[in-house]
Amino acid sequence: MAMNKTQKAATVDQLVEKLEQTPTIYLTNYTGLTVEQATDLRTQFRAAGVEYKVIKNTMLRLAMERIGGYDDLFDHLHGPTAVAFAVEPSAPGKVIKKYLADKKTEIPSLKGAHIDGAVYHADALEVLANLKSKNELLGEIITLLQSPITNVVGALQAQGGNLVGAIKTIAETAKA
Length: 176
Description:
This protein is of the alpha+beta class. The protein has helices spanning 5-21, 35-47, 57-67, 91-103, 125-129, 134-158, 163-175; strands at 24-29, 51-54, 82-86, 109-115, 118-121. It has a 5-stranded antiparallel β-sheet, with helices on one face. Helix 1 (5-21) packs across helix 3 (57-67) and helix 6 (134-158) crosses helix 7.
């Protein structure tokens, strides 16, 4: 059933809201998936916290134009397009990569992705799937920040509280 202008405007408004709320989108080509395969893929996306929808290219383009910053993805808006919306940048990539490996297929294929303002093209699936989550990155940063403190505490304890010895140990550690 064809949509009237009011329905189209409402759809574009909803897409604008969705794009503004979601820092990560993946554009995929799903042509060739059976209904059963598409349902299985949606289930896997849902389990990973990803929303996967088939969206008309024209509607998506209008929403993207209204927000701005998506110009590099316009070339990918041709043919059947399904969009994966996610908060976690690597989640859709991991689902797609696992699905392709498990099913030994090439569909769905990545057309492009937009993650926090950065654009990735069809050949970036491997890179996207291997991105670390924000929690993993924060953990690494905290570990790096704690490392010098641990060295200072260790140096103080190693010298039995001797301030001169602690400073000397810290200076030697810093040189190494």
